[in-house]
Amino acid sequence: MKRQREPGDAVSYQTESVGVLVIGAGAAGARAAIESVRRGVDTSDLLVLGKRGHGDAHTTWARGGVNGALGTRDPEDSPAIHAADTLKEGHFLNDPAKVETVAWEMPGHLRELDDWGMAFSRTDDGEIDQRYFGAQSFRRTAFAGDHTGESLLDTLVARARELEVPYRENLTVTKLVADGDRVYGAVAVDLDDGSVHLIGASEVVLAAGGYAAIYDRHTSRDDENTGDGPALALDAGAAVTDTEFVQFHPTGMAVDESDPEWEPWRGRLVTEAVRGEGGRLYNAEGERFMERYSPDQMELDARDVVARAIAQEVREGRGTENDGVYLDISHRDADFVRERLPRMYERFQDLGVGLSEEPVEVAPTAHYGMGGVVVDDYGETDVSGLFAVGETMAGVHGANRLGGNSLAETLVFGAVAGERIAARDPAPGTVPSRLVASVVEPHVAGLAALADSDGSHTPGGVLADLQTLMWDHAGILRTGDSLRTGLDRLGEIRTASEDLGVGPLGSESFELALDVGFAVTAAETVLRGALERTESRGAHYRTDHRDTDPDWRRHVHYRAADVGLVRSTASVGEPSDTVQAAVDADHELDYHQLE
Fold this sequence. Notes:
By secondary structure, the protein is of the alpha+beta class. It has 16 helices and 18 strands. The strands form 4 sheets. Strands 1, 2, 6, 7, 8, 9 and 16 form a 7-stranded mixed β-sheet that branches. It has a 4-stranded antiparallel β-sheet with strand order 15-10-17-18, covered by helices on one side. A 4-stranded antiparallel β-sheet has the order 11-14-13-12, covered by helices on one side. The radius of gyration is 23 Å and the shape is globular.
């Protein structure tokens, strides 16, 4: 049992106030802060919080590219076709208005990044180069080798520093201070010294990532993407939607888990750029199996299609020793591979494998949550002053994300939210005394009770159990019975999460205990949404309901209430006439141009 804290164990907290508080320092948070300042918010009235060091965010692991209809390689491409591809990939569960905002704004954002010095890969005549990505009708994905996210974030951080955007690192937000109608700030813990901070703010931007790391095999960095953003928003009174749609990237690393050199790489992303540059998939019998599943688009079909094909090959006994398949780009010239895929080449070279000489083993891995917080066309929730951008928000991707659209979404909606916030000329926020008494002080007391507790379970063990549960019961292939079993098991994990052995405030185990709480909340929304949605659509595949049901072309919303999560549904909008015409034109990738 937990040790009971004595009255003298109470934790004090520091208070401060800003006009705009940005939670999360990846691309979405950085872009929101930059736009706010560019539009007139004084830097003294803005603060960006990051859980890690400045410039150290999950954005850096987005490798393959960022979409925008520049038409560098294919002049016939257009924002309308980009939007149409996004809607088709999302199985028309996307919010068309948000999709169109991203598609029309992205060419300008790519040129802006170029002006700011981003190290894009170039064509022979010096233009921003573009490559194929899965399910794209044209070469639309701009890139910087295979380190696009890293280069993009470096560019944004440099621009933020030029503008003197204030940034504080190694702080994790534990609660938003809100009354259900408006947000007033946040409570955060400094992971360096364990101090607790109450930060008042008129406008709060949640850019805290997604929830893919609630799965056992995933592409996220350690202790990130555990559902912080959606869970914080739910607790503040906002709604989340469509979290049952989890993208399993076809090509995570499949490794021998008994080998200590390889085990840390389990599930890590092998960028889609490998396939975009011509990489081919083979099963253990040497068959290029995508010919059976998608003879026209082959390895560059939608991610959900390729992931399910790999899972099928493994299930039917044609998988590799490590339950994967082979990805092979050795038919390409070695210099080409080193130039176009430098990070992948170096990674495998360090592990003793020549990417340009031999195949590598890959298997599906949890990569991205299409669902998230419900926001309007400006990224604002129905809790006034609370915005959600990047992977924390929902709406752009629908039932399956088009590769290259994640970074695009961060840039566009970061800027959209920043512009909206600046137009309000936000003054420093104040937390009302009634909320200090009813929300802040009980929460800080709860943090004190969690710190140094000596419960029966470790945070890492409970999180690992949760990740296994989600992989086993809400993975690539789902059934109603398995999802119900998962919900029952989640109840046991929630009980265990209330009896943790935790170190002091700010310690690694304390942070992990917070992550467990967020992850349990996110997992419940995924399991409940997947059980509710009795159809298969995009990344959500029910083997007991294999068909797509037109009546289920609607969103599943959840809100927190005294009785737990309360469900509702909402209809989906329709695209503009211009985009509908592009949908009807039925543009499609001609994969065989790569052959």
